[in-house]
Amino acid sequence: MDFVLGGVAACGACFFTNPLEVVKTRMQLQGELKTRGTYQVYYRNVFHAFYTIGKIDGLAGLQKGLVPGLVYQFFMNGVRLGSFAIIESLGYIHTDGRVSAAKSTVCGAIAGVVGAVMGSPIYLVKTHLQSQSTTSIAVGHQYKHRGMMHALLAIHKQYGILGLWRGASAAVPRVSVGSAAQLSTFSASKELITDLQVFSEGSWLIALSAGMISSVVVVLAMTPFDVVSTRLYNQPVDHLGKGVLYRGFMDCFSKTLKKEGMTGLYKGLGASYFRLGPHTIISLFLWNELRTLYHRHS
After folding, report:
1. DSSP reduced 3-state for 95
2. pLDDT per residue as tens digits for the range 44-58
3. Contacts of residue 211, Cβ cutoff 8 Å, sequence gap at least 6
4. What is its main location (predicted)?
5. For residue 139, what pLDDT is reported?
6. In the chain, which ranges are E strands?
7. CA of 67: how far to CAs of 32, 40, 171, in Å?
């Protein structure tokens, strides 16, 4: 049940934040491996990107990749949050009854790795679909998938089962860093807010506030890994299924840093917060409340 509750909470958040995921993906691919000022800027900021995609691709364009997004969230976060919930209930993140920063960080990272590996094929397809757009505002490599199942079958047919896990080398550090930052901060913040007695004991505002604190830490820690992940998943590949632009995580990280500077690794930071921030807050809040509700009636 812990796995199901984690997945349902993440899906609830995904439905509302998917348009921002589309915006984030496009902004991270814009000007890929080009120095500032040498490429066409289609998306000036989060709000301009939102307006441009809605105007050119239509409102449906803002919900591209929703189906694989929901499937990814259910399985990846179901495994990640479910694993952490079990680890937490067994007392492994505590030392002398208090949340241990080191233990919760390690446990959050482990839960993230398991979820990232399982969800990688769906994340690959989601990224391809979200980057697809009308030629006039296209950024990054454009795949011609007609939907999630068509994409999965086409990739498997051309590159085999391992082709579906292309980009997993970026997914593991991305999700493990994000998960470690998110879950350790959420657990520690929830405990701190309870200790300070800002809200009454058991109040839903405790989880909501802890989620807000966690969201800021997650975005700052995760964005460089998120940019690299998006680019590795979306890059064109040769007939053997090997990336044309990057050999792997470190190659993409170093090339982006060299060509675009530190700001390249934080491309779409605003979009990242508008997407990851609400997603973190909503999913952690729903997860906490669903678990409380379930344990109260079980």
Report:
1. strand
2. 999 999 999 999 999
3. 186, 280, 281, 282, 284, 285, 288
4. mitochondrion
5. 97
6. 94-95, 98-99
7. 26, 30, 19
